[in-house]
Specification:
This protein is of the alpha+beta class. The chain is built from 15 helices and eleven strands. Strand 1 and strand 2 form a beta hairpin.
Length: 414
């Protein structure tokens, strides 16, 4: 059980404080409720661009990283379809320096054409390196567009096109910042060697005077139920033929999410998993095979990906996967296998709670989902799953009309 206190400043900033005096460190997590799904379809990649821009200097802090290092701390950030998170960990005695840094860039970034040009170039190079020059690197571009016809999950976090970032101007970027990066759209979490009263006083001092802001968001259109099998083939410079199967599934708070997460572990987590034992070791259909869930806030995807061994046809590989999915639909998972899965998940959750940084990020995340107290329900959600739940979910999920299939074919020039 993770205990915490929560309050809201007058400017709308939600603040969570978790005391853990077993460590001399304090972790700081700031989650902004903005991700790639909040972007204009013709101006994608902006949330990811801001992950970089937020380190480019603010009104009173020209160099964020140098001050962080002098304070003995570390920091980083991540962006996904739903959220953007900035996190820091620092010795408790230097917490105030971190709060100063974070509050200053929440107040006002250093907007100028030089900084924007530099960070645009960084993001464009990342796009080239990870999406264009890496085998299978454009997978999310193809699979997202294939799996979502209406919802803005139809483009990846890095953006649809390099041109959207290359053409971004200062006015567009400034407008995006003031709409999303303000106290009323943020969650600040402190976790570690800090007592509630001290933490509250510091937060009020450094964040209390920042204007609240007003976020304008478009509610994403819900993805309609899929009624046909979607499939595309891509031929390119890849080392192996590959198959990706994406099945549309429930949102992050649905029971289906927890069942699907367990199924992904059952199929592909470790040497005792079914895919590993039968499709990798026994039949040797794949050089690598995996299964995972996207974990998105709105209805997401259950994804199976496999790189084929030489001499194996796509028909063999696909049928091998289908045979394993059919077993889930028609054979009840043994109680011992199910309990092993649950115990493994609970161990992972417990282990993650050792780190104050993990706790800070998770508390912010669950608060963004609706209530930080949800963090204490995770283990119970997994433990409540039955063998019948797995069979029922497999039967409804793994059907042909709910499948989005992406095939990579190795070009003859390889």
């Amino acid at each position: 059980m993770i205990h915490f206190d929560k309050f809201t400043l007058s400017n709308g900033l939600t603040v969570i404080i978790h005391e853990d005096h077993s460590t001399p460190m304090v972790a700081v997590s700031i989650t902004y409720k903005v991700g790639s799904k909040d972007e204009d379809p013709e101006k994608t990649g902006f949330a990811h661009l801001f992950e970089h821009l937020m380190f480019g200097g603010s009104v009173n802090v020209p160099d964020f990283d140098n001050i962080m290092q002098e304070a003995g701390g570390e920091n980083n950030a991540f962006t996904n379809a739903d959220l953007t998170n900035f996190y820091d960990i620092v010795p408790a005695d230097n917490l105030e320096a971190v709060l100063w840094l974070e509050s200053d860039r929440m107040l006002q970034l250093n907007f100028n054409n030089k900084v924007l040009k530099t960070q645009k170039n960084v993001v464009i190079e990342e796009f080239k390196e990870t999406c264009l020059n890496e085998p299978y690197g454009d997978m999310w571009h193809h699979l997202s567009k294939l799996s979502y016809q209406v919802h803005p999950y139809q483009w990846p976090t890095i953006g649809k096109s390099m041109d959207h970032i290359a053409n971004a101007n200062l006015d567009q970027v400034s407008s995006f910042f003031y709409n999303f990066y303000h106290p009323g759209n943020a969650i600040l979490t402190l976790a570690g060697h800090i007592d509630f009263e001290t933490g509250k006083k510091m937060v009020e001092e450094w964040f209390g005077d920042i204007p609240g802001g007003n976020t304008v968001k478009n509610t994403p259109n819900p993805e309609p139920k899929h009624i046909s099998h979607n499939r595309i083939e891509v031929t390119g410079n890849v080392p192996h033929d590959a198959i990706y199967l994406a099945y549309n599934m429930g949102n992050r708070l649905s029971k289906e999410y927890y069942v699907c997460d367990l199924i992904s572990d059952l199929l592909a987590n470790g040497r005792s998993s079914r895919f590993y034992k039968r499709l990798y070791k026994e039949k040797q259909f794949f050089s690598t095979i995996d299964a995972f869930v996207s974990g998105s806030v709105d209805p997401g995807l259950f994804i199976i990906e496999g790189k084929l061994m030489p001499g194996i046809t796509l028909e063999q590989a696909r049928q091998g996967i289908m045979d394993e999915l059919d077993l889930l639909k028609n054979e009840r998972i043994p109680d011992t296998e199910l309990q092993k899965l649950k115990n493994s998940v609970e161990s992972s959750l417990t282990f993650s709670e050792i780190s104050v940084l993990n706790k800070a990020i998770s508390l912010s995340y669950f608060e963004a989902l609706g209530d930080a107290r949800l963090i204490n329900e995770e283990a119970g959600n997994y433990q409540s799953i039955t063998a019948g739940d797995i069979m029922e979910t497999a039967r409804s999920l793994f059907v042909d009309i709910n499948c989005n299939e992406l095939i990579y074919l190795r070009s003859d020039t390889n």
